[in-house]
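FAQ: What does the model actually see?

It sees only this:
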Amino acid sequence: MTRQWRRFLGLGLAFVLILLASGGAHAAWKPTKPIEFVVPAGTGGGADQMARLIAGIAEKHKLSPRPIIVVNKSGGAGAEGFLHVKGKQGDAHTIVITLSNIFTTPLHTGIPFAWKDMTPVARMALDEFILWVNAETPYKTAAEYLAAVKANGGGMKMGGTGSAQEDQIITIQMEQALGVKFTYVPFKGGGEVCVNLVGKHVDSTVNNPIECVSHWKAGRVRPLAVFDSARIAAPEWKDVPTVKQALNADITYLMLRGIFGPPGMPKEAVAWYEQFLKRVMDTPEFQAYLKDGALKPAWLTGPELTAWMEKEDKVHHDLMEKGGLLKKCGALVIWDSLRIGIGWGTDGPKSGFFPFWLAVLMIGACLGIIGRALTDKSGKPFVTREQLRPVLDVLWPAVACVLLMHWLGLYLASAIYMGFYMRRFGHYPWLAAMSVSVIFAVSVFLIFEIWFLVPMPKGPLEAWLGY
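And it is asked to produce this:
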């Protein structure tokens, strides 16, 4: 072979290699490890059913090169799940199914999370809400049941998913529009809510259709009215009147059923999930799920989805403000905590337990300071420089601790704060200071995150450990 031919062959080979490399560099993204699918609600509810259906369809039709693992993180009205996903910055192998609690939970609890912290992927459907009663009760219409509620004077129990979420918003709307009063009982998920209605532990619920449809077909529960502007179109649901038709009240509410990713999810991954979810939605199984569960298909992605989320965020803020469910301070916290319950439920402390006692401590301390200032007739200054110095010794490390929580989370920041304080002001040995601070932080973590399932702000350490 001549030198010229060898040169042409070498150039041709190099060109082919460049093309191959270029093609590999621009190859479409796809999952390379199992996908964690977070459900910020309990098992058996509408969100859990939809997430597990998507995972099953993906496996059946081989729509994903890697398996989808559904993980329930229902603590704190879904806050546990949202904070978990928020902590997975840039992770392309984590997604979360979002309900309207993506709006309500931050507004009510004040947790360091908002829907804008997530990466919107797709809105797949909008879900209905129905007023249900046990089929063995005498109430055949919504008007008959509401007349009994009014006559009972607040003793009738309305079951719902979580506190200050969609179910309680609808319940408060009914109370305000119809002049009635319910005792609202929160549960971890919609499946558990309907089971308690069947067991007669509550008098009514406002479940999604999919959460009660099996019990309805078995003759255990009865739908009285749907919270929409029109009746559900599916033939088996068409006899259920709207709340407007049944009670002459304009109460409508549709819940988001969508998929989001962690903050900073790569655009290539978002594109893959959009395509994947659209293929899932087009399968016969998912279409049957939408029809049987009376969900409204509502595919939306990209800038249009972001604009819709911004509008719904304002709608939910207005609804929760009107219902008295926004985060408050002082006396308002005490009042609202008493309203939603400060005792203990089946799954631990009720939503008002911790806010109530914190507000009591805050107001008690403030009243004590005011009382002392008003009764002190000595003319001496409220505090001298010498007295202020030890106060500042406590204050500035506490302020630093609060600032560190933004990056490190509550537990690690608290451990650093305690260890620093013991060492600097208590003059304890390093080993003792470190041991006590770590044991304290781990103990608090176990109590809140594992025992009570009350999520607190977490940082990179907890994310690394899988929380």
